[in-house]
Amino acid sequence: MPIYKAPLEDVRFVLDEIVGAGKLAELPGYEDATPDLIAQVLEEGAKLCEEVLFPLNQSGDGEGCTFENGVVRTPKGFKEAYATYIEAGWQGLSCDPAYGGQGLPKLVNTMLEEFICSANLSFGMYPGLSLGAYNALSTYGSEALKQRFLGRLVDGTWAGTMCLTEPHCGTDLGLIRTRAVPQEDGSHRITGTKIFISAGEHDLTENILHLVLARLPDAPAGTRGISLFLVPKFLPKEDGSVGPRNGVACGSIEHKMGIKASATCVMNFEDATGWLVGEPHKGMRAMFVMMNAARLAVGIQGLGVAEVSYQNAVAYARERLQGRSLKGTAHPDKPADPIIVHPDVRRNLLTARAYTEGARALGALVGYKLDVAEKHADEKTRREADEFVQLMTPIVKALFTDIGFESANIAVQVHGGHGFIWETGVEQYVRDARICQIYEGTNGIQALDLVGRKLPQDMGRLLRRFFHPVGAEIEADMETEELAEFVLPLAKAFAKLQQATAIIAQKGMKDPEEAGAAATDYLRLFGLVALGWMWLRMVKAAQAKRTAGEGNAAFLEAKIRTARFYMAKLLPQTNALFITIMAGSKPLMEMDEAAF
Ligand SMILES: Cc1cc2nc3c(=O)[nH]c(=O)nc-3n(C[C@H](O)[C@H](O)[C@H](O)COP(=O)(O)OP(=O)(O)OC[C@H]3O[C@@H](n4cnc5c(N)ncnc54)[C@H](O)[C@@H]3O)c2cc1C
């Protein structure tokens, strides 16, 4: 049976040392979000995840969702778990108090999302999509739409979806065919078919609000002609209660590789009543609000799977007895040593651990900057934080989901043949984690976003939000002797990143295929350096606390040793990535299409 314990101690460390203890409470509107309050909230959230959501993860995978006569049923226990979730107010944790939310920082919700995704990724899809709909509606919806719908998304009695994909159009949303025809009363009639819609239909809530991309009759071709509409499953009555059925129905659900307890639906819209969200033809802008938040959230899904995979790999490596330590018998009282003594098993475990803890730190920093971008009193600070978030969004999405998949694979490997067996529980993590690399823009598309949009934006202004603080920190720590083994490898990798950036920018201007060919390797290189930066910060904090005799000595020592592993064994991948980037586009593009 798989196990899971929320990593509360590490979260607290990251909040105190990477974000800064008390920093969130300094932001206007978040005065109540003190370290102690956040710790209490996360402890309660951890209990919910460990005791309510996690026990349904494997059974939900085994049972899956069912579809009968247009009705979708989630697996046994999901309805009750969702009721527990919303009754305790978790859905509105970071939502505006004006609509019934608790108004806590987004970062607190991000931390909770990690626990949810470790415990039960499929379950997390339902509240996650609703939060995405809340974000888009609260940013771009008219006052009337907000008053009518936001409260129900916040209390979780109604859910949300995000309807972009159509059978012929996934990555290229410019191909969307769903139509919206304006009506005299200001509403629109929506007609079209959307596929792969997560939470498109289910039995958890009394109503579902679909955010749908569609074209108005006078729409220009391509993404410039897409508008966003809110289309409820049931039209609300004047008093806000659920009214008649709207012209939207689920045609079928997908049978798929993973996240089997998350309903992935074909949704048919036929003259469905909907309301415009934001301006006509500017739907992509509104959708991007939802997609950017969702991209960060998908990154956190990857982190969640990485953590639970690591925990299960370690638990198994401690108890599985095979062979003897290469140095001789380590546990003479046992018929063989636990596999955790073997260097190769340790390589696996430490790889998962170093990626996971590094990603948690980076995710927390990005989550904090998201709060700063929204709440800080100073306009310049807000703008700079927003630029940092924009730059890091594709990295968090792609790197963290790759890490999630790699760690899940590691957990299977550490379990040997038992890992391949369903009952053991870890092969589910591989299947579940795989979709995170695909939806919300595939990881290849994230890499293109990084090199094609974020890198050249405003002559590299976004890049400076990363390069300046990292460069300054490396320089400041360069002379500190006890940091040498950490800062020197980071300085080398950072130099490679700077060099690669300049070369890609230069070559990409002349030939966009050069940038396209480098994109995925560049994103990984960037991501590894970003995690290296986090490890430098964490090691400094751990060393300082150790010297001061504060904190849990074993925890701090393990931090320092994991940092050493990261710098010595994982960060050097940046050298190979740099060489691959330098090889350019020719090895990819010289092959004739017909020769494949
Ligand atoms: C379980 C599940 C849940 C989903 N949930 C939702 C949801 O809630 N709402 C929703 O709207 N959609 C959802 N999706 C759809 C998902 O977002 C798309 O599958 C994804 O965006 C990729 O689109 P596609 O499948 O059409 O692949 P394609 O766009 O056909 O891409 C195929 C391959 O080509 C590559 N490619 C495509 N274009 C380019 C390019 N220009 N440059 C380089 N490479 C390129 C891609 O990276 C990919 O590897 C879901 C999908 C699944 C499987």
UniProtKB/TrEMBL annotation:
Cofactor: FAD
Acyl-CoA dehydrogenase/oxidase N-terminal domain residues: 79-156
Protein name: Acyl-CoA dehydrogenase
Acyl-CoA oxidase/dehydrogenase middle domain sequence ranges: 162-271
Family: Belongs to the acyl-CoA dehydrogenase family.
InterPro entries for this protein: Acyl-CoA_dh-like_C_dom, Acyl-CoA_Oxase/DH_mid-dom, Acyl-CoA_Oxase/DH_mid-dom_sf, AcylCo_DH-like_C, AcylCo_DH/oxidase_C, AcylCoA_DH/ox_N, AcylCoA_DH/ox_N_sf, AcylCoA_DH/oxidase_NM_dom_sf
Domain of life: Bacteria
Highest classification ranks of the organism: Bacteria, Pseudomonadati, Pseudomonadota, Alphaproteobacteria, Rhodospirillales
Acyl-CoA dehydrogenase/oxidase C-terminal domain boundaries: 282-450
Pfam families: Acyl-CoA_dh_1, Acyl-CoA_dh_C, Acyl-CoA_dh_M, Acyl-CoA_dh_N
Coiled coil: none
Keywords associated with the record: FAD, Flavoprotein, Oxidoreductase
Domain Acetyl-CoA dehydrogenase-like C-terminal: 472-592
